[in-house]
Structure formats: structure tokens, C-alpha cells
Amino acid sequence: MNDDSYLKGRGAQRNTNNKFSAYSNEFRDDFLEFCHLEGEIADDNKTQYIPIFPKTIVNKVKSPDVGMNYSMNMYQGCEHGCIYCYARNAHEFWGYSAGLDFERKILVKQDAPVLLEAKLKSKSWKAETIVMSGNTDCYQPAERKFKLTRKCLEVFLKYRHPVGIITKNALILRDLDILKELSAHGLIGVNISVTSLSEETRRMVEPRTTTIKKRLEAIGVLSAAGIPVNAMLAPIIPGINSHEILKLAKAVSDQGAVSMAFTLVRLNGAIGEIFTDWIRKALPDKADKVLHQISECHGGSLNDSRFGIRKKGQGKIASQIHDMFDLAKRMYFKDKKFPTLNTGLYETYRDGQLKLF
After folding, report:
1. Which of 142, 30, 120, 4 is nearest to 72 (CA)?
2. Which end of the chain is less congested by CB atoms within 10 angstroms, N or C?
3. What is the pLDDT along the chain (357 residues), one digit of tens a residue?
4. What distance in Å separates the CA atoms of residue 357 and residue 355, rounded to the nearest whole number?
5. Furthest-apart CA pair in the chain: how many Å?
6. Rounded to an integer, what distance in angstroms lies between the CA atom of residue 347 and that of residue 310?
7. What fold does the segment set 46-335 form as a domain?
8. In whole angstroms, what is the distance from residue 288 CA to residue 28 CA?
9. CA nearest 304: which of 78, 137, 21, 86?
10. How far apart are CA 41 and CA 45, in angstroms?
11. Where exactly are the structural domains of the chain?
């Protein structure tokens, strides 16, 4: 990173305009000069936690290629700052930017455990795995303060309801006690994201995430405790981490992961602009090559929104990535399989244990 303007500790390097807003903002040179002369800070780069109070917490997932039917998110926005994150666009619906606002304005659903319990007590609800972090990481830094993920896990355990977790933070080990209890009933499946084995790469593309070492250790601890772990090698970014597939697969398999999956990066909505601005500052010598290779995987564009194709890509580079992934599965995940979670206990526990009498 040889650009003096690079904002360290964040993924996005600026706020892009919100497509739903008639207004835009920019840091003008005259304003920055005024701040300098007055000894003021133009941007303190601090994270804000903003409470919000939605009426529901469990969302029906309508996209047919996501691999889940229901998700819930205790937080909107994510301080991890992953530069490629598809969830950035959702921040625009709240009136914020998909850029720095996504990483610095974290919306906190403080009633999440109450809303979840109301959903599970509903007479019309049929047990089906609900995935925490379908949008933003449930173990992002905000969780240390608010503990909403832990409280929601307690609700899932109370009602013996299956739950999935997607995270890239070793903070999940804080809740190992609850996870073990859920696992004893076949109620939990964990997905750990491991994007690279290089700390330098991790710091650039996922600046405020857990180190690779600690993520691998988390897979090992969870697996040793009998908790099934799927490793998410995602996203694969041509020219950045695409050469690591075999080494990544071996590393997560060695730690006990029972399955793995991957997605090919796609830069939908505002993310294309955010990623392009970032890579020209973070990796100026590689920027054109990486952007061209991503485009080659999506028919000449940085994004392809077609279901079933958008996460897989097309073309020679995409085919090479798929072939490498298939080889990695044959080498390191033969005869391994992620289990189906248990939906059979919920009906008994929906109303406590009254049905037993």
C-alpha cells in the first residue's frame, strides 16, 4: 500500500453516494484545509452503534441459490470491513452509504432475542434451520458489547430449534458451552469463513477480522467438541487468493472441517465502485489485472446477478477455479459430509414440555 491517502483499519476508503438519496457528500480540499488550520479532525473514523427496533427478526430468503430458507441478523452493517461484502448494499436501505458507513454505523437490533422467541412460539411456525448471519456477521466486534448472538442461542436451545451460524470471528468460542448443548441434540451447524492463509492479504481485504491462525484454531476447537463445521472459502478473488484453494482446503480439513464450499467474488451494486477505489489504492500494481480477471468471470462485467450463475461465474478463469475446487474436495474431503440438523424436537418444546403430560 503506497498511497498516502489510504485509510488504515477500514476496507472501504470513502463513502459512495446512496442511490436512494438525492444528496451526496464529499470532502472538499477547502474544508480539509479549514480543519487543518483550526486543529480539528475532519473524520475521526470511529464506530457508532445505533439502536433500531424492527418488528420482526426472522427473514424468509427468497434467493434460490443461497442455500438457506430463513436467516436473521442481529446487526446491520459490519465493522469487519470486508471490501467485497455483498451486504454493503443493504445499508443504503437504511439511508447510509455502502462504503465507510457500512463499517462505522452499526445498527443494533436490541430486541432480537425477544423477537426470535415470539417467532418460535408462533403456532404457525414449522421447524426449519434459521441461519444467523445471512447478511452480516453475528460475531462481529459489536457482539462483545451487546451479546445478542449468545442470547439468541439461548432461545434456540430453550426451544430445541435448529440454528446455523456463519462467521469469520473466533469470538464464537466464547459460546462453546451453549454450542455443545445444541450439538448434543443435533441442532447446530457452523460455517467458518477462511479467505486466505496470508495475514497480509487478510489485513487488506478483511481489516478488522480475526486472524487466520485464530480462525483455523476455532475450526479445530469446534470440531473437537463434536460441532460440525463447514469451511467457507469465500469469496475466491482471481489474482488475490485464487492460487490458495488447495492449501486452504488442506488447512481447514486438517482442523476437522467436515465440508467446504466456495463462491466466486461478484461486485454488485455500489460494491464495484467501492472495490475499484480500494484496489487502486491498496494494490495499484495489480488493480487492472484483478479487475479484468473478475470481469472475465462475469461476461465482461464486475457483476452478474443471474441466479445460479452469479456466485459461480463463467469462462476460462471460473472453470479453472471450479476444477481446482473439485480436486481439493477429492483430496481432502473424501467421505466427509455435513449433517442434516434435527427438526424433530421443536414441537415438544414449543410450549415447554406440556405435551409430555
Report:
1. 120
2. C
3. 545 568 889 999 999 999 888 777 776 667 667 766 777 666 778 999 999 999 999 999 999 888 899 999 999 999 999 999 999 999 999 999 999 999 999 999 999 999 999 999 999 999 999 999 989 999 999 999 999 999 999 999 999 999 999 999 999 999 999 999 999 999 999 999 999 999 999 999 999 999 999 999 999 999 999 999 999 999 999 999 999 999 999 999 999 999 999 999 999 999 999 999 999 999 999 999 999 999 999 999 999 999 999 999 999 999 999 999 999 999 999 999 999 999 999 999 998 654 544
4. 5
5. 76
6. 37
7. pyruvate-formate lyase- activating enzyme (3.80.30)
8. 27
9. 86
10. 10
11. 46-335
* Contact indicator for 95, 281 with CB cutoff of 8 Å: no
Q: Degrees (nearest 5) of the Cα angle 97, 273, 85? A: 65
Backbone φ, ψ for residue 107 (5° rounding): -90, 130
The three cell numbers locating residue 317:
478463469
Look at residues 124, 290, 109, 295 and name the one whose alpha carbon lies nearest to residue 204. 290
* Cell numbers at 25, concatenated: 457528500
Residue 52, strand partner residues? 109
Residue 170 burial (CB < 10 Å; 0-12/13-18/19+)?
buried
* 3-state percent helix, strand, coil for the chain, nearest multiple of 5: 40, 15, 45
What is the identity of the amino acid at 300? G
CA 119-339-192 angle, to 5 degrees, is: 75
Sign of CA dihedral 245, 247, 248, 250: positive
Q: Nearest-CA neighbor of 144 among 165, 111, 170?
A: 170
Cα(172)–Cα(166) distance, rounded to whole angstroms?
10
